[in-house]
Design brief:
about 120 residues, 3 helices, alpha/beta, 3 strands, three-stranded parallel sheet
């Protein structure tokens, strides 16, 4: 919802959008239509996405993110689903995936925060 509002008109004070599992489409109904509005967002965007997310097939998400150019960053979380859960057989734990996601988010926020102090 925030990305749609930002696409329609810049929101005051918003310097970037981070998506913790962007729901590109309904499960089992692949489509990139829900992401079309992102082309109108002129802010940095971070997509933290599970590789096994049934709401965002990578064959659709990767080209969408690429089409957004340098303002979009995709961070894939190995074996994770939409809720960042991982199967036991992966050898990873949910906490490991969450730590990876939060580390990526924190690193992504640093340049945005730095630009705020310069403004």
């Amino acid at each position: 919802m925030t990305s749609q509002a930002q696409a329609a008109e810049p929101l005051p004070g918003v310097r970037g959008l981070a998506f913790f599992g962007f729901p590109l489409h309904a499960a089992g109904k692949p489509s990139a239509d829900r992401g079309e509005h992102l082309k109108e967002v002129k802010l940095p965007m971070l997509f933290l996405q599970g590789e096994k997310d049934k709401l965002a097939e990578l064959s659709l998400l990767k080209p969408l993110v690429k089409s957004l150019g340098t303002r979009a960053t995709l961070c894939l979380l190995p074996d994770a689903d939409h809720s960042f859960h991982v199967p036991v057989r992966s050898g990873r734990k949910d906490a490991d995936i969450l730590a990876t996601a939060l580390d990526a988010f924190a690193a992504w926020c640093k340049p945005i925060s730095a630009s705020r102090t310069r403004a």
